[in-house]
Amino acid sequence: MDCLRRAWPLMAGVAGLMAPPSGVRAQIDYRNLDDDRPALIEDAYPVERFGFEFLAPWRFSRDRLGGTVHAFTPELAYGILPNAHLGLKLPIAGASAANGRDWGLAGFRLFALYNFNTESRLLPALSLRSDVNFPVGSLAGDGTRVSIKGIATRSWGRTRLHLNGAYTFGRDRPLGAAEAANRWWSGAAVDRTLYRRSLLLIGEVYALRARSIDPVQVNASIGVRAQLTPYLVFDAGIARRLKRAAGPDFELTAGFSRGFAMADLMPAGRSR
Q1: Domain total for the chain?
Q2: Per the domain annotation, does 80 fall within a domain?
Q3: pTM of the full predicted structure?
């Protein structure tokens, strides 16, 4: 797995930079499903108010024709309200080409999530998310695209069910090499928490159409999220197409996320 050997030094360096300060309180960030971390489907819960979350995921994808893409997508989210967060992504991709591999920015994405219903006995947790994808970089595709996603999460003890559905507005144009704004997609995921091990197991199935002229993909993935330290989470997963005609031959993803508060950014001994 040459791609894993090349990516590991980068991920290890990022993990070192995100090591938590001493004395932080324990958290359970491994239960928070972020989009593509490691499953496409996310849960309905935002980042806590005034909290930050920095994510450093890497993804390798190979299609059925042998084309490959490496993607590194730094992401930062901020809990602006008790039930909402804002964030941005800056995907960097390396796509296989006739002369080797082309590297470049694959767009710039701003997003916002609002949780308008907390889970109750009758209703699941419900959220809406909107993403705006800007065509920034040589591998970003064409045109600005706006996506809307509905998210639902229902819990039964340590097991949770998540439903996601998204639609992107705008004309059919070439998409970015990474973090593409697909025309539509929908899917379901189930996760199971292993509390004593600070580990979350995830499985999902989803269907998507990249553009109106493209065939529908049906893909499945499995993954794990593990709490390494109170604020540092590692995730990894693998995905594969379920239809022969469309979808990735396989995808691998791995990365780290680091939660922190505004106080962590201030010099020691200085009051706000």
Answers
A1: 1
A2: yes
A3: 0.86
